[in-house]
Design brief:
Blueprint lengths: L1 H5 L13 H26 L10 H11 L8 H22 L3 H19 L5 H11 L2 H4 L4 H21 L14
């Protein structure tokens, strides 16, 4: 038991802080990426009972604008992780939605398996799957359209903005790889 508990002490050194320039580029990319999704959603999608923004995009913004070298932030993971997780979430809601707690647990767990199998692990994908289950009537009424809009289109917008903003300064490069 002592050995088991000792693992929880950690031991690695904390990562260094980042400079103000890095902070500002991360902030600007996130403002534009999330702002564009939110603007397009309110202006064009919501009047048609659709949406283009979901909570998991906030976590994606942290990865693709602030942790741009992370394997979890690369385009394959951003797009693939959201899409396979959206599929898992909608499928679990449609099959088990009568027992919401079960649908929620299976959606997130199935999304994790799907991301691992497809090599597209993107932690916000877990939230994308969960939103498909707990997102309410507006999300439930979308059915598998949820995977295309908001999930696919929204993630693609975040990616396009990440490609633009993360490559403007000389010291930043995104992506590390595509596939």
């Amino acid at each position: 038991m002592k050995t088991y508990l000792a693992k929880m002490k950690g031991g690695a050194k904390s990562p260094p802080g980042v400079g103000l320039t890095e902070v500002m580029w991360s902030w600007m990319g996130s403002v534009v990426g999330i702002g564009l999704c939110a603007y397009l959603s309110s202006r064009y999608f919501e009047p048609k009972d659709l949406t283009l923004i979901i909570g998991s995009f906030g976590a994606s913004a942290v990865l693709v604008y602030a942790a741009i070298r992370s394997p979890l932030a690369q385009p394959r993971n951003l797009l693939g992780g959201h899409v396979v997780s959206g599929l898992a979430g909608v499928a679990c809601y449609q099959m088990f939605g009568g027992v919401l707690w079960m649908a929620a647990a299976l959606a997130v767990s199935s999304a994790i398996v799907a991301m691992l199998v497809t090599r597209t692990v993107h932690p916000p994908g877990g939230a994308t799957a969960l939103i498909a289950v707990i997102g309410g009537d507006k999300v439930h009424n979308l059915g598998f359209l949820y995977v295309f809009c908001p999930v696919g289109i929204g993630a693609l917008i975040l990616l396009i903005i990440a490609l633009i903003f993360n490559n403007l300064p000389k010291h930043r490069k995104y992506p590390e790889y595509w596939l």
